[in-house]
Design a protein that fits this description.
By secondary structure, this protein is an alpha+beta fold. It is built from two helices and six strands, in the order αββαββββ.
């Protein structure tokens, strides 16, 4: 009986860790090297909420935004590290990388 309870708690714990979180980043004037000017969103429960936040930040044709899933700050890299990043722009070197145009949740 004790083993069944422990197994149940383990399974519930694993299920609870599969929840995705999304965080947006706004790059004013599209400056990807201006970390001090980045604006980070609060954490969202899904991609669509993050994309709405990101779209609301776009004020000029030069602005860029991204949404990342399951992000955490990496102190060694001094950068946000995400499982997946969906961008508002296309990267020629990464032709299959997800963008706001082609990403489907």
């Amino acid at each position: 009986m004790k083993n069944i309870i422990l197994l149940s708690l383990f399974i519930l714990g694993c299920i609870g860790t599969n929840k995705q979180s999304w965080q947006g980043t706004y790059y004013p004037d599209g400056c990807l090297d201006c970390e001090s000017k980045y604006i980070y969103s609060p954490t969202f429960n899904n991609y669509n909420e993050c994309k709405e936040w990101a779209d609301s930040k776009l004020k000029s044709k030069f602005d860029k935004v991204s949404c990342g899933s399951n992000c955490s700050y990496d102190n060694n890299l001094q950068a946000l590290n995400c499982d997946l990043v969906v961008r508002s722009w296309h990267i020629d070197m990464l032709p299959n990388s997800p963008t706001f145009v082609n990403y489907k949740e």
